[in-house]
Amino acid sequence: MEIIDLRSDTLTRPSAAMRAAMAAAEVGDDVYGEDPTVSELETTVSELLGKPAALFVPSGTMGNQLALLLQTRRGDEVVIGEGAHLAFYEAGAGAAWSGVQFAIAGSGGLFNAAELEASIKPRADFYPRTSLVAVENTHNRGGGCVFPQVEVESIAATARRHGLALHLDGARIWNAAVATGLAEAEIARPFDTVSVCFSKGLGAPVGSALVASKEAIASARRYRRMLGGGMRQAGVLAAAALFALRHNRQRLFDDHRAARRLSEILQDGRKLSTVFPETNIVRIELEAMAATEAVAKLKVRGVLCNATGPRSLRAVSHLDVTFEQVERAAQIMVEELSSA
Questions:
Q1: Number of independent structural domains in the chain
Q2: Torsion (CA) 146, 151, 157, 161 in degrees, nearest 10
Q3: Model-level pTM?
Q4: Strand pairing report for 312-316 and 306-309
Q5: Which residues pair with 53 in a beta bridge?
Q6: pLDDT for the residue 271
Q7: Residue 339 above 90 pLDDT?
Q8: Domain boundary among 247, 273, 304
């Protein structure tokens, strides 16, 4: 039976060409700062994002946690959008490592300057100190929605007026750039720190980066070591990330097109609805069937997706599924999910 795996764009596997680049990578000891391929990746990413420096890290979670460690103190509060990865998918790391708590602004993952303003605590001994605003673009639990740049600019202006730092969880900034036509550097410009991922959609097997000022990255390098993220001959991993950046960014158009097609076909189904996708994530709402039951029924037919709520599913298009496979998966979904 054919398996069509739409659970996540982290499921992509390195291509033969990417594996060849990894095998041919020049390496050294990165803890000593002597891995030339890691250095090349960090330079490439910092230039692409328009920031002075970058640090290669094993995961997006580590990149986000480094940003918290750099820009908060224990007991601080960080303003985030509803369902943000920082609070939802990082195993409570913000509380464990940085000692911060989170305040939610807006709904559905997005918020505006007025909603940020309402979330900022007054300065008083009995309130937590609001110190950081974090934006996620694109927003995972928001269905891969793109954070409007005009709102980002207004949020940044409000944050600066209050003396707050700004972090962008840009794990899928590549999708945001493709969807909007904006350069990654323009999307990243208002932020002090930006985390980006190479294993979501771009096809690298592992790896993320944090970009910021040279001073911040010097401090982040030490924090990375504390968290166990110091890597030795990491050039074999950095080579995969470099290959992904050079070959797989523009093809994200294909993933967005496939996600739109999936949503279009699902509109023919009864007892379900979708939020039309801006990027590569399709959010499916079920009228009567429990999400866990839906996942089980689809798995029997060879279609894998994730439950994200009691009656909601997430399907993600990516490098390892073809447009035709997405169409077949959508038809199976219509057949199975309309029968409740």
A1: 2
A2: -100
A3: 0.95
A4: antiparallel
A5: 212
A6: 85
A7: no
A8: 247
